[in-house]
Amino acid sequence: MRSYHEGKLKTSIMETQLLAECVNKGNNEGVIVFLDQEKAYDRVDHKFLYKLLRIWNFPDNFIKLVEQMNEKSKFRVKINGNLTPEEKAQRGLRQGDPLSCYLYLIVMEALRLS
Question: Given this model, what pLDDT does residue 83 score?
Fold first, then answer.
């Protein structure tokens, strides 16, 4: 999984062409689907993620680590130049965290299977 980064478009196009060639050379059938969900990480519900981790038998210590990581996520909103008090994030994955892309894939896999 790759998120958009400046200057990486050429690499993504080359990877897609390589994937298509592999499917064609192997005489396999396949479909390539591109999805671009706006604010994708921001849409992940924490309770849903924890439920998936439990259903799919992730170790308890891993689930607790993810929960602790999300417990620390807080945000503030600037309205008319004034910051609101801190609020605990109820959903969303941390941008830039290496684990976030894998947690997002878990959620997407559940949606794919449903």
Answer: 95
